[in-house]
Sequence to fold (154 residues):
Amino acid sequence: MRRVFTKLASLAAVGTLAFAGAQPSQANTPAQPVRAAAADGPAYFVMTDVTREQFVIKLTKSEDIEHARELIAGETTDRPHVLTRIVKRTAPYNPRWSYHANPETTQFFDQAIEVCDSTIPYTEDHLDEAGGAFLPGLVWCDWSSRLVRELPAP
Fold:
């Protein structure tokens, strides 16, 4: 019974995260200049966390690419952390790790629930457990994540 409760609580937490992670409407945000490079294709960024390990993420949505560039340039401090669903396989642009961030689900956040918090190496070490009680729904939100630089496209 305890195990069932834990799974139900984890699923409820992931559902709550989906609603909490919703972005505000564009009508409420001031217009910002769009950099042409964001429309040219995906962009790649290095993130780190409290462990100082580095992890490469691929962004495909122009608004996320723009936000990432503003974070790196120090133009904003809003939503500095990375939230995504992980994919349990290596990506060519992130060969060191056995998982990667799904570019279609990657977004930024200020605060998130604890059930998705994990560091880069802890996620690697417990990847076989991800998707169950650990990182339910494969949702990963490293609370100490931050972008450090943009990489040229491979």
